[in-house]
Each structure stands twice: as C-alpha cells, then as structure tokens.
Design a protein that fits this description.
This protein is an alpha+beta fold and 575 residues long. The protein is 38% helix and 26% strand. It folds into four domains: 87 residues, 2-Layer Sandwich (Beta-Lactamase); 101 residues, PAS domain (Beta-Lactamase), CATH 3.30.450.20; 132 residues, Beta-Lactamase (2-Layer Sandwich); 158 residues, Reverse transcriptase/Diguanylate cyclase domain (Alpha-Beta Plaits, 2-Layer Sandwich). It has 16 helices and 21 strands. α1 packs across α2, α8 packs parallel to α11 and α9 packs antiparallel against α11. The longest helix is centred in the middle third of the chain and has 32 residues.
Length: 575
C-alpha cells in the first residue's frame, strides 16, 4: 500500500508539471535495483544497480517482460535469478502499473533469505533423522508446558501419541511433583537425573539434557531436549545413586543460597529444599540475635517449612546452639535433628529438621547432608547480617541513629503520595544556642547534644512516624495521621523535654533550646515535599525570631500562591 501511494504521488506530480520528474526521482533514489518501463515495456529509466545487472546478465529482463505482459491486473511479486560477479543472486521484483501504461519495477536481493530458508530446511531434516535413529527419546514442550513433540518410539512405555498434549509433571513421582524439571527449564540443563513414572506405574530414572525456547519478545515458549532411560543401571548401583543424589541435593541447596541476592529469601527457600532433601516433614532455620546479654546465644526463628512442630523449648535450642555436633531428640512421635550454624567459628544460628510418625531414623547420609547445609546457612546468616548493616549505614545518620536526609525525604515522598493517608504534620526542628556548646565545650560535647536530641525525637514515635536529621543541628519529625492539635502537643512535649538537657547547655546565658516550625499537610491539594518542607522551615524561622524555645504553625497550603511570612501564626512559647 505504501508503494502504491508513493507511486501515485509521483505520477500526480508528473502530470502537473508536464514531465516525468516523479518516477525518475523514485527510480534514482530507490536503495535497490529499480527501473521504469514504458507502455511498450522498453526501459525508460534505470538506476545504477539495475544497469549493472543488465550489463552482467541481460537474460532476466525478458522474463520480467513476459510476466508483465501476462498480468491483467497489478502483477505483484516475481523472483528471478541474476548472474553477477558474486555468483547467482535471486532478486524479488515488485511491479507497479503506471498511468501511462508502463510499469515501475523495484527489486530486492532475496538471495540470503532463500539460502537461510534452505539451510533451515536441511537442518530440520538432519535433526529429524538423528532423532529417529537415536536410542534416546527426544521431546519438546509448548508454552502451556505440555508435550508438543515426542520422538516416534515414544518413552517410558508410552507410545508417542499418548504423550502429546500431556503435562510432563503428571509423569513425575508424587514426592517430586513440585521440583524443577527439564521440561519447563528457563536455562540450559545438561545431564540431569530425575525419576518419572513409566506406563506400568514403576519408577524410571532418566538422564535429561534440555534447552529453553524463547520467542522474539524474549518470552518463554517451551523447552526442547532428550532423555535417556538409565533405570537398569541405577537399580544395579542403588547405593551409589543414593549418595550421588544426596550430593546433588546439597549442591542445589548451596546454589540456592548463593544465587539469591536477597539473603532472607534465600533462607526461606533453603528451609524448603533442606526438608525435601532430607525426606523430612519440616525444617526451621534460626538466627542468633545481636547483642544478647551475657554472651548467651539467643535464637530467633527466621524461616520455616513443613508440618506443624510441637512447641520447642529454649532448653533444646540452647543445647543445639552450644553443641559442636549434631543434636538428636524426640518430641512425642517427632524425630528431631539439629545443628548450630557458624561463621568464623562463632555460632550465629541453628538448623532444625524433623520427621513425624514411623519415619526412618536419621542415617549417615542424612547427617552428612545436614552438616553441609548448616555450614552454608551459617555463611548465609553472615551475608544477611552484612546486608542489614549496609542498609542501616545507608539509611541512618551515623551519630544520632535517625533517618538521614536522603532516606527521610524518600520515605516522606512515599507517605504523602498515599491518597488515604489523612492529615499529617511535618515538624522542622532547629537547635537554639548549639554553636555556643561547640565553641565553649568542644565538638565532643556537641555530639552528645545531637545524640540526646536524636533520642528525644525518636522517643514515643509511632509506626509510620519518621524522625530524621537533615544535617548539622537541623532535625525533622514527620507525624503521620496527625492533625494540628496533636502536632502542637508533640511540639510542646519536645520543648518540655529540653529541660532535661539543660546540663548540656554552653552556659545559663545561652541555654539549649528548640525552635520548631509545624506545617500540617492535607492530601489531595497537590503540595509537594519541597513545598511542605519550605512551609515548615519558614515557620521554624518565625519561631526563632520570637525569641527561641518556641514553636510556630505555618499557614495552610495554597497552590500557586506565595504565602507571606506575616501569615504565619504567632509563635507560641512553652506553656
């Protein structure tokens, strides 16, 4: 359609000017071979690429003339071979009728595309032949996860037709239905071993290799692979297979812990995989609390999977945390096995696994796997602690422990963006006579003052309130879901709290105090964080002008209007 419209436009231009400017320009500018034939099908115009083709091989042009002569309507597309210095090339021509009875011919080199199609056809034929003669069975799954192809010999005693359209997970053993399989893999799988159900219901062991398939948009559209039935070999060496299976499960758990960027999420997955690897009914992962009194290791539950466990007393957890080896115990009909986790020879948690009912007792393979998992969970605990320390350092002011400037404003932005947050208040707090403390008593005393103010601001705050330090002696306190009256009460509490810090003042003539600006925020009025902060800051300066040790309330927000400082309500002293 674009080509016809373009041609029509040039033809109209030609008629209006009385010349042949339109078609000639299109022929000359076309990036491939192009020419214009008159009503007698003689060449009226040709670009350089078309002329080179006519010079190297004139045989293709008569074939195009015959094609055009036989066309009663728009001719469409025609592919012809052309001999060139590079060899035989296939050119696809589009013929467009012109108003004067001639034709516009536009060509495109189709050689590479045809070669690719031919190569693809040969590749598919070769793949089909290899699959048909292989003793393994090949398969392919579609976007819905079901089989769309199985080699004609079938698999596991099923004919191929019985597997087409079937979910591969229906072939998995009941205890392995939720485990990852090569049939829905998202990355390459090489020689992985899994157990499936054969047609007669007996377990069958296969070794599978697979590749995921992705569409042009990067979406997963299935998987393709081959499986080899190794059941007889595995049954002959069952003990060896069991040991190898334990090692594979440990490797899977280790990779789970290493590959997950979020350490807390990795622990949750590790609890699940550890229980399955040990054929256990459940697993718990505990972590040592930081700063426990008396050097005692206090354990907190951080991840759990499986059946409900009877109440585990602190005596058992203490025994696990203080034992260097495995600890076994029973709670009724529940068999327990636990081991502490360590990092650099320091206990940092515990791993607890259990089986219920008449389960098999723990064997040496179980104990070996348990110890291996505990070692790596100890590393994961250390990684989690490191992440938490980094997060605290990035979010908190190092001196006061309050939110730093960046984190405070990020969280304030999130808070005021919630339409259902209700009225809230921002308190802008500035220290009075703080410079005198540093000048007379030094920065160590100044740091003590800043720490005390941090404690004052964070005492009594509710979930959702945000105490922060902007820098120097400037602080902020965001009070969520707080109206003007409640904000006043908090400001008065802060001013009264300064009485307990009088001993930190530089001198009686220059007592420590606070100047507080209060700005009440009402959702839905379009006020930005910057505008809210500016209102509270202006109110704070008004409070300071009133003699320090006061608070002042900023006027209500008015969009697109400057609020004169005289509109700020009168500063209020400590009652």
């Amino acid at each position: 359609m674009d080509l016809l419209l373009t041609t029509g436009t040039f033809a109209t231009a030609s008629a209006s000017t009385g010349g042949q400017t339109g078609p000639v320009t299109l022929v000359a500018l076309y990036p491939g071979p192009a020419l214009r034939l008159d009503s007698a099908l003689a060449v009226a115009e040709a670009n350089a690429e078309a002329e080179d083709m006519m010079d190297s091989d004139p045989r293709w042009l008569p074939e195009l003339r015959n094609w055009l002569s036989a066309s009663s309507v728009a001719p469409g597309l025609r592919s012809v071979p052309v001999e060139s210095l590079r060899g035989i090339m296939i050119v696809e021509w589009a013929g467009v009728p012109l108003p004067d009875g001639g034709f516009l011919l536009l060509g495109r080199d189709d050689t590479l595309e045809r070669q690719l199609r031919h190569t693809l056809t040969e590749s598919r034929r070769r793949y089909k032949d290899l699959v048909e003669v292989s003793s393994d069975f090949a398969w392919e799954t579609g976007p819905d996860g079901t089989f769309v192809f199985v080699s004609h010999k079938g698999a596991l005693g099923y004919p191929a037709d019985a597997l087409i359209g079937r979910d591969p997970r229906s072939l998995a053993l009941e205890e392995a239905e939720d485990l990852p399989t090569p049939f829905d893999c998202r990355r390459a799988v090489d020689q992985t071993e899994l157990w499936l159900k054969s047609a007669d219901g007996t377990p069958a062991c296969v070794v599978a290799s697979a590749l995921p398939l992705f569409g042009v948009q990067g979406d997963w559209i299935g998987a393709r692979g081959v499986c080899r039935d190794v059941t007889e070999q595995v049954l002959r060496s069952n003990e060896l297979a069991r040991i190898r299976n334990r090692e594979r499960l440990l490797g899977h758990i280790v990779h789970t812990l290493r590959d997950r960027l979020d350490a807390a999420e990795a622990l949750a997955v590790a609890a699940t995989e550890t229980a399955r690897a040990l054929s256990a009914d459940g697993c718990r992962i505990y972590r040592a609390e930081e700063g426990a009194a008396g050097g005692r290791v206090v354990l907190s539950l951080v991840a759990e999977f499986g059946a409900k466990l009877p109440e585990v007393g602190t005596a058992l957890l203490d025994r696990i945390a203080n034992s260097e080896g495995l600890v076994t115990d029973r709670l009724g009909d529940v068999q327990l096995i636990g081991e502490r986790t360590e990092y650099r020879q320091a206990a940092n948690g515990a791993l607890l696994v259990w089986r219920t009912g008449d389960s098999e007792p723990w064997d040496e393979d179980d104990r070996h796997l348990m110890s291996g998992v505990a070692d790596h969970i100890g590393i994961a605990h250390a990684h989690l602690a490191y992440q938490e320390r980094l997060r605290r350092l990035s979010e908190r002011d190092g001196l006061t422990g309050l939110f730093n400037r960046r984190t405070f404003f990020e969280r304030l932005e999130e808070s005021i963006s919630r339409p259902d947050s209700g009225p809230s208040a921002l308190l802008y707090v500035d220290l009075d006579n703080f410079k005198a403390v540093n000048d007379l008593h030094g920065h160590q005393q100044g740091d003590a003052v800043l720490k005390a103010i941090g404690t004052l601001l964070s005492t009594g705050v509710r979930p959702g309130d945000l105490p922060g330090r902007l820098g120097g002696d400037e602080f902020v306190l965001w009070l969520g879901r707080t109206d003007e009256a409640k904000a006043r009460i908090v400001a008065e509490r802060l001013l009264n709290g300064m009485r307990d810090l009088a001993h930190l003042s530089a001198s009686p003539e220059k007592p420590l105090g606070l100047s507080i600006g209060i700005a009440v925020h009402t959702p839905g009025r379009g006020e930005s964080v910057r505008e809210l902060t500016d209102r509270s800051d202006a109110a704070m300066y008004d409070a300071k002008k009133s003699g320090k040790g006061h608070f002042a309330l900023a006027p209500a927000y008015r969009a697109a209007a400057q609020i004169p400082s005289s509109d700020v309500s009168a500063a209020e002293p400590i009652p």
